[in-house]
């Protein structure tokens, strides 16, 4: 008898360090959960009604790998309206979440022996997808500044790339840092990647959630041409409060879209048909919803900043985008243990900084997408423990 | 300037040969489409209502990677009721379709240098998933018998395995062949795989669709123990008419479930939350629905057999399971061209045999899951062209 084996590189992949905390805290009553990247209000009714109407119409059959035509059109219209970008459906593929978009893109671009340079600290799943495909992730960390903000060392980024590098992964606005890349920075990276034949995987799922008053963060939707080596990943999760729906899209050059479309067939065939109709409602009827959401997140960001930044042990920059406070705490060396303790003592669920890479240790991530009264209550419970 | 590259093994993957026919026939009016593996009736109302109620309750948040607890319980109950199998939730992971289950399983089991032995002719996507992960698929073809049925040469199967072989892929009842493995055959394969440390990936999505009067086809649900190297793939698509929902599950040893759960996080995080509630309704309220469906498919199988088997050019065995007639046609050498011609001349959409591997050339696949009046009309149009 021999034991059938599981691939060692899959067994070696680290599980989520956030889940370590949530599992340890599963039985604590009255928890206010700010550990995942989502709020506490369900998807808006007009989106749910869009999916329900599709169910009533019998939209329950197989659909095209690339996505249903009305959704491709709605994405194209949304990018024209929101970004003034002309992007036809030959450059769009609908995916079953931003994560699914990242995994399928990496399947198309990374094979064993390839490396991917990742700008961190970052939500760790893209890194794991690279490792699962046998690639080597290389971390380049944003540098924390004295005011708590983050800065990219461009030379360090470029120096991390060599002839094995197939991909640079960038997430702006960033999870967990809230870092927002400038247009100039995005252009410099694009010039470098054009020259070197390296793909940019630009995760722009928080692209609409910025506090500068701009309609969106600087974006490759406006900076990259149709044939540039850029894959923009988007998701319905954050801007339309649709985390549980698992729906997203990519924008990429047509030749890569053709490969992603093919690989979609071999991964999931297509995202759920009537879920895609919910996406049509979100895009076509959701502009005001996003405006309201960003307004609320801005107030939430202020509330968190005002509560935490003055604490002597805390270092926190004013968030520029996304919906996380990723604060450093003097003397913190085991963020998982502290998050477990905070859950026990204060019934507030937070994510340990080490979940976002070794450079995140000594920090805690708080997601402020919850409704304001709940957030306020969480801060009241939390502040005494951070003093 | 350098061009950023896409992985050659992904570019080399063949696209679907069925889609070649469907794309060429897109503008033909009044087509009766029997080319995909689905019927023409939407998902039953009680399942759609289950998902709609979940939407109304606000089940739109992130969920556990492994699937929501009520669905894990419903799967366990269903397997007890339908198969008399005791399978706890430590051996179940919910997936976003059977395809997604196959892809994630292959991610866990196949790396470059590994081979997978595939019993064909077979729906080609599992083969493509093996290739996408850098593995080598090896085909072992069922032998067509004089009566049109299929037979597995067990020695040929075992001889195809060597020390690189990590996996045997089996699909019984089979798409496109309708072949149903006997319990004795499944046991022989299991004994071999236990001895050699080879995984069995048993695609049982048609497991309930058999015409012998038995409640289910011979199945590893009843034959494999909790620690046996067996992964059973199932799907809601076929038995509950939920193709567009993208929902399925695996049953596997706990150690593999842990790996699949982890990789689910890096592929899709989890299947759509309220879609899973539709799955709960399907399982808990759907037993009568399945019985009625199988009864109808049995009549459809008879109708197709009686119409096509007597034709001099046609060789077709009486289908034992699944819902396809995979008939040989004397003198046929280009099934793609013939399917295009049939679409043009008779407005009936069929799948070319070569889509299921080289051993499928000379054949055509007809899916008889459509409602009986539509199927009858399709046969009336089709028979004159096959004479």
Topology record:
The structure is a homodimer of 387-residue chains.
Chain A: H1 8-11, H2 17-24, E1 32-33, H3 45-57, H4 69-83, E2 92-95, H5 98-109, E3 115-120, H6 125-132, E4 136-141, E5 143-144, E6 150-151, H7 154-159, E7 165-171, H8 183-196, E8 199-203, H9 220-223, E9 230-235, E10 248-251, H10 254-267, H11 273-285, H12 287-308, E11 314-315, E12 324-329, H13 335-346, E13 348-349, E14 351-352, E15 363-367, H14 372-386
Parallel strand pairs in A: 1-13, 3-4, 3-7, 7-8, 8-9
Antiparallel strand pairs in A: 2-10, 5-6, 9-10, 11-12, 12-15, 14-15
Helix pairs in contact in A: 2-13, 3-11, 4-11, 5-6, 5-10, 12-14
Write out key terms for the chains shown.
2 domains; 41% helix; Aminotransferase_I/II_large (chains A, B); 14 helices; Aspartate Aminotransferase, domain 1; Aspartate Aminotransferase, domain 2; 16% strand; globular; homodimer; 7-stranded mixed β-sheet; alpha/beta; 4-stranded antiparallel β-sheet; 387 residues; L-aspartate:2-oxoglutarate aminotransferase activity (chains A, B)
Summarize the main sheet of chain A: 7 strands, mixed
Tally the structural domains of chain A: 2
Topology order of chain A in helix (H) and strand (E) letters:
HHEHHEHEHEEEHEHEHEEHHHEEHEEEH
At the first level of CATH, what is the class of the largest domain in chain A? Answer: Alpha Beta
Which range does the strand content of chain A fall in? 15-25%
Cα Rg of chain A: 21 Å
Shape of chain A: globular
- Helix percent of chain A reads 40-55%
- Using DSSP, what is the number of strands of chain A? 15
**Which residues of chain A sit in consecutive blocks of at least 5 with pLDDT less than 50?**
none
* Mean of residue pLDDT values of chain A: 97
Separate helix tally of chain A: 14
Given the helix and strand composition of chain A, which structural class is it?
Answer: alpha/beta
At the fourth level of CATH, the homologous superfamily of the largest domain in chain A is: Type I PLP-dependent aspartate aminotransferase-like (Major domain)
Largest interface: A-B, 76 and 76 residues
């Amino acid at each position: 008898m021999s034991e059938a084996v599981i691939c060692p590189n899959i067994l070696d992949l680290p599980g989520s360090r956030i889940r370590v905390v949530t599992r340890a805290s599963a039985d604590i009553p009255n928890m206010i959960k700010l550990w995942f990247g989502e709020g506490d209000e369900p998807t808006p009714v007009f989106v749910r009604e869009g999916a329900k109407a599709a169910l009533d119409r019998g939209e329950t059959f197989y659909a095209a790998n690339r996505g249903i035509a009305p959704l491709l059109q709605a994405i194209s219209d949304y990018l024209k309206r929101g970004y003034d970008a002309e992007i036809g459906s030959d450059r769009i593929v609908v995916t079953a979440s931003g994560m699914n978009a990242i995994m399928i893109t990496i399947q198309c671009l990374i094979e064993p022996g390839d490396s991917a340079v990742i700008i961190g600290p970052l939500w760790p799943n893209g890194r794991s997808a690279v490792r699962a495909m046998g690639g080597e992730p290389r971390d380049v960390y944003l540098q924390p500044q004295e005011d708590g903000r983050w800065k990219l060392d461009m030379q360090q980024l470029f120096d991390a790339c060599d002839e094995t590098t197939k991909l640079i992964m960038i997430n702006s606005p960033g999870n967990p840092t809230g870092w927002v890349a400038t247009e100039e920075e995005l252009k410099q990276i694009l010039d470098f990647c054009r020259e070197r034949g390296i793909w940019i995987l630009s995760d722009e799922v928080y692209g609409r959630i910025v506090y500068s008053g701009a309609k969106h963060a600087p974006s490759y939707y406006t900076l990259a041409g149709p044939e540039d080596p850029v894959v923009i990943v988007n998701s319905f999760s954050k801007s339309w409060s649709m985390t549980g729906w698992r729906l997203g899209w990519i924008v990429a050059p047509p030749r890569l879209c053709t490969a992603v479309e093919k690989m979609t067939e071999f991964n999931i065939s297509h995202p759920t048909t009537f879920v895609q109709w919910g996406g049509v409602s979100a895009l076509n009827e959701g502009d005001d919803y996003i405006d309201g959401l960003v307004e609320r997140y801005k107030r939430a960001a202020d509330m968190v900043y005002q509560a935490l930044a003055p604490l002597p042990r805390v270092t926190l920059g004013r968030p520029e985008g996304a919906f996380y406070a990723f604060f450093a705490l003097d003397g913190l060396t085991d963020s998982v243990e502290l998050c477990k303790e905070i859950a026990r003592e204060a019934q507030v669920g937070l994510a340990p900084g080490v979940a976002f890479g070794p450079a995140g240790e000594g920090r805690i991530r708080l997601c402020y997408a919850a409704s304001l009264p709940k957030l306020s209550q969480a801060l009241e419970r939390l502040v005494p423990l951070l003093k």
